[in-house]
Design a protein that fits this description.
- This protein has a 7-stranded mixed β-sheet with strand order 6-5-4-3-2-1-13. A 6-stranded mixed β-sheet has the order 7-8-9-10-11-12, with helices on one face.
- Helix content is about 20%, strand content about 20%.
- It is globular.
- The chain starts with a helix and ends with a strand.
- It has a single domain (about 90-340), classed as Metallo-beta-lactamase, Chain A (4-Layer Sandwich), CATH 3.60.15.10.
- The chain is an alpha/beta fold.
- The protein is built from 8 helices and 13 strands.
- The protein has helices at about 5-10, 55-60, 155-160, 175-180, 250-260, 275-280, 285-295, 320-330; strands spanning about 95-100, 100-105, 110-115, 145, 170, 185-190, 195-200, 205-210, 230-235, 240-245, 265-270, 300-305, 345-350.
- A hairpin with a 2-residue loop joins β1 (about 95-100) and β2.
Length: about 350
């Protein structure tokens, strides 16, 4: 590993610029819309080898990437509870789960979408098991979109085409070209531990791009050509939300928790984990998600990335049941597990 790579993987030394929020020193934000050059590959950021030919052959032989048919016959127990979006002001933060990793996050007077997927189906999977929790026509004007990585269940071109091309897109390094080819004009891409600020009515909302244990691929020829990660969003009033995107369990959670103190809410994936021998390095299971919440020092956890698309072999309802059991076993307060139905919302008060 080169000296440059070792530096890029480490938590950086903070710049002597301090934000106004509850935090240690953080680097100064980068300009919105900045054009940058990146390495051809980010494969040196992988925390585990990608599956090779033998693993794919085993998967094909075992046929173990879909749940038993019986588990898909009755989906009535899956939690779906759409409701009107709650009223908020610039001093409060509200999260609404639209399904999978798509959240309507209203923070600092802005509306930010995370990994928005409003399509009925995505490439390579059956149609979604549950409907989108928020009608597109019911959304407030979208002030920005944050994307965790380029997999089809997180970067959905048909959904993004519904947005004005001037909508700010905050992307991992290496994805700006994809967005500009689709005529988006306000595109910002970041490396790990970098940030930008979105202007809001009560002051800027800071958006930090942070590491994850995952990978990227969209075509046969672009494996790890763009970066992957999560986002820490901090309101002017101090509320802080961590959106993990897609990730396996590992050391990054503690590093993020050290750098961004007092995370109020962690949006963490709990599904798409079986078979474990293949998906363990890149997808947390429910117990690992609860452990990650503790590593982050987050006060509350909202599970996501389950009950929407058939991506793996576990039964659709199993992630929720296991997450609840793990939360109780960890001795965490039940009211701090925000296991929302799809379409439901919760509000953080002023810090």
């Amino acid at each position: 590993m080169t000296e440059r790579t070792e530096r890029s993987l480490a938590e950086p030394e903070p710049d002597p610029v301090v934000t106004r929020h509850r935090t240690r020193a953080l680097p100064a934000p980068r300009p919105l819309g900045e054009r940058r050059l990146w390495p051809r590959s980010f494969a040196d950021r992988l925390t585990a080898p990608l599956p090779g030919v033998r693993a794919l052959a085993r998967l094909a032989r075992e046929g173990s990437l879909r749940p038993p048919a019986a588990a898909l016959r009755d989906l009535s127990a899956l939690p779906v509870g759409p409701a009107p979006l709650p009223a908020v002001d610039a001093a409060t933060t509200a999260v609404t789960w639209a399904g999978h990793a798509s959240w309507v996050l209203r923070i600092g007077g802005l509306t930010i979408l995370t990994d928005p997927v409003w399509s009925r189906r995505i490439l390579g999977t059956p149609a979604r098991l549950t409907p989108v929790g928020v009608g597109w026509e019911d959304l407030p004007p979208v002030d920005a979109v944050v994307i965790s990585h380029n997999h089809y269940d997180h970067l959905d071109a048909p959904t993004l085409r519904r947005l004005p091309r001037t909508t700010p897109l905050l992307l991992p390094a290496g994805l700006a070209r994809w967005a500009r080819r689709r005529r988006f004009t306000n595109v910002t891409e970041l490396d790990w531990w970098e940030a930008v600020e979105l202007p809001g009515p009560a002051g800027p909302v800071r958006c930090d791009f942070v590491p994850a244990h995952h990978w990227s691929k969209r075509t046969l020829t672009d494996t790890c050509r763009s970066l992957w990660g999560g986002w820490v969003l901090t309101a002017p009033g101090g509320q802080r939300v961590y959106f993990a995107g897609d990730t396996g369990y590992g050391h990054w959670f503690e590093a993020i928790g050290r750098r961004y103190e007092a995370i109020d809410l962690a949006l963490l994936p709990i599904g798409a984990y079986e078979p474990r021998w293949m998906l363990g390095p890149v997808h947390t299971d429910p117990e690992e998600a609860v452990r990650a919440c503790g590593d982050l020092g987050a006060r509350a956890m909202a599970p996501m990335h389950w009950s929407t698309f058939v991506l793996s072999a576990e039964p659709p309802l199993e992630p929720l049941l296991r997450a609840r059991a793990a939360w109780e076993a960890a001795g965490r307060a039940r009211e701090d597990l925000w296991d929302l139905p799809i379409g439901a919302s919760r509000v953080l008060g002023a810090a």
